[in-house]
Amino acid sequence: MEIFNSQGKNITKSGVLVLNKAIGSVIFSSSLDVEALTTEQIKIEVEKLTGNEEITKGYMDLKDFIYLTTFKGDAITSDVNYKTTAQCEICEDGAIQLGEKDVIKIELIGLKTAETYVINGIEEPQTSVKTLSFENKSMSQDDKSKTFEVAHCDLAILDNADSIIEVAYTYEGGVVVKYTLHELRVLSRSIDPLAYVRQDGSVKCAFASKIQLPLFGVNSIEVRKAQGSIVNLIVRREA
Questions:
Q1: CA distances from 5 to 2, 10, 31, 44, 214 (A)
Q2: Average pLDDT over residues 3-24
Q3: Mean pLDDT over each residue of the chain, to the nearest integer
Q4: β pairing state of 25-30 and 17-19
Q5: Facing residues of 236 across strands?
Q6: Which one, of 147, 21, 41, 158, lies nearest residue 91 by Cα?
Q7: Domains of the chain
Q8: Helical H runs in the chain?
Q9: Which helix (H) or strand (E) is 50 found in, with range?
């Protein structure tokens, strides 16, 4: 079902889109290439009588949201109408389970008035309580090293920043494995060699600004970097 379409509306935000139907994922489409999404942000939450569930923990970059929901099995695609189309999962094993008065709220801000943005919600034959959530973690300019707890997270995106010296994974059981940035890029591409099929038919195997990182069995990540730069790590947490 179509939830939002900005075509011809000359708007910079969607307003709050309220759904009382359960969905398991959203399809986001745009007249822009995914890497041209620079100001756009998305907010998704489930408003429940038993307590709200923040899927995006406030607003997050729409581009990052797409990167975190299309790794491995779900590539970003395109067609004659849209340069970017992405199916973005927000719940595992079905649609988000909603009570009688529960609703899903979606909001876009930072839209470019000359461009088109479309959101569709995908219904599922069954419901699930396994709602996903996304959280931004960061290192300040003064940080040289920082450890991020990522237990119960299955995926992350890391800034593809030359200031990063080394990334150490601590796995379940205490085993520590260290990687250079180049090694992480290669490992990410080897797991998902098809990231984006562009409208002109060209294929990209990775993105310039971010590295997509699987986190199965990883308890924590330590990032070492040079001072003077901010580095972001955004994680997807399983329910």
A1: 8, 11, 11, 17, 32
A2: 97
A3: 96
A4: unpaired
A5: 134, 155
A6: 21
A7: 2-130 (no CATH), 134-192+203-237 (2.60.120.20)
A8: 62-67, 181-191
A9: none
Can you give the length of the chain in residues? 239
Q: What is the DSSP letter of 77?
A: B
Q: Which residues contact 202 (CB under 8 A, 6 or more apart)?
A: none
Question: Residues 6 or more apart from 190 whose CB is under 8 A from it?
Answer: none
What's the pLDDT score for residue 140? 95
Q: Which residues pair with 86 in a beta bridge?
A: 28
Tell me the average pLDDT across 152-166.
96
Which CA distances in Å does 217 have to 40, 47, 150, 158, 223?
32, 31, 9, 18, 18
* Cβ atoms 134, 57 nearer than 8 A: yes
Strands 127-128 and 95-96: parallel
Beta bridge partners of 88: 26
Q: How far is CA 219 from CA 12, 28, 61, 123, in A?
A: 39, 31, 25, 33
Contact call for residues 165 and 158 (beta carbons, < 8 A): no
Query: Quick one: the chain helix, strand, coil %, rounded to 5?
Result: 10, 45, 45
**Cα dihedral: 30, 209, 41, 53 (round 10):** 110
Nearest-angstrom CA–CA distance, 81 and 230: 36
Burial class (CB in 10 A: 0-12, 13-18, 19+), 90: buried
